[in-house]
Design goal:
With 232 residues, this protein is of the alpha/beta class. Helices cover 34% and strands 19% of the residues. It has a single domain, classed as P-loop containing nucleotide triphosphate hydrolases (Rossmann fold, 3-Layer(aba) Sandwich), CATH 3.40.50. It has 9 helices and 8 strands.
């Protein structure tokens, strides 16, 4: 396995799940890729891809209720999806399950992309324990930026030193980048990477648009190369 990449954010609605899906689609053109929806009880990657969700999740696999292939959803050639926890009752969800399942699957996939829950609840910290690289997604707003900085510090505390910053809904005319110290790695404006609107089939249209975007191509290359990006 080459990388376990967590796509995360300080708050919801910034386009994190969309970007996770697009990264997975792009990498699956050449590699075996697994997308893990780690938002406990609030899964939505199956909605983005318009695929029928499995009746099982990771906890069912670990408890012996099903085999791993029964919990895995085949999206397309080289791209699969696995839900971390579908139940709304996540209080008893063991923190070690994600690490256990990744260890079991590491020889079956080249890349594992983990769509992290927003914020800094336990589900977020569960993802940090297994990842080698973090993609922090934020919007062109000062509040989103400050939350992203906090996420960055937590990533470093958890020994994730390879961090990529992505600004979604970039406003070239009124951007906060003129007022903050951080040099962002990649910028997507409102016509390129936007939040999910749950229109069936619309996601692939968005992907076709952004897959020809130079910044998006560079982001994928950065994930593949594995070079550390130092942030101010």
């Amino acid at each position: 396995m080459k990388e376990v990449v967590v796509v995360t954010s300080g708050k919801g609605g910034v386009g994190k799940s969309t970007l996770s899906s697009m990264i997975g689609l792009s990498l699956s053109q050449k590699y075996q890729v697994l997308l893990i929806d780690a938002d406990l009880g609030l899964k939505n990657l199956d909605l983005i891809f318009n695929v029928k969700s499995s009746n099982y999740d990771i906890s069912d696999v670990v408890k012996g209720r099903c085999e791993i292939d029964q919990a895995t959803i085949k999206i397309k050639e080289n791209l699969s999806l696995l839900n971390l926890c579908m139940s709304s009752d996540v209080r008893s969800f063991p923190s070690y399950l994600l690490e256990t399942i990744i260890d079991e699957l590491k020889n079956d996939f080249d890349y594992i992309i983990v769509d992290s829950p927003a914020g800094i609840e336990q589900g977020f910290f569960n993802t940090l324990s297994v990842c080698t690289k973090a993609v922090i997604v934020l919007n062109d707003e000062i509040t989103s930026y400050e939350d992203g900085r906090k996420i960055q510090r937590l990533c470093k505390i958890n020994n994730i030193k390879n961090i990529i910053y992505v600004m979604n809904r970039f406003d070239k005319k009124y951007s906060i980048r003129d007022y903050v110290k951080t040099k962002f790695s990649y910028y997507f404006n409102v016509t390129e990477l936007i939040f999910i609107n749950n229109v069936v089939g619309n996601f692939y249209k968005k992907y076709r648009i952004i897959s020809h975007n130079k910044e998006f191509d560079e982001l994928i290359n950065q994930i593949r190369k594995g070079n550390t990006i130092l942030l101010v």
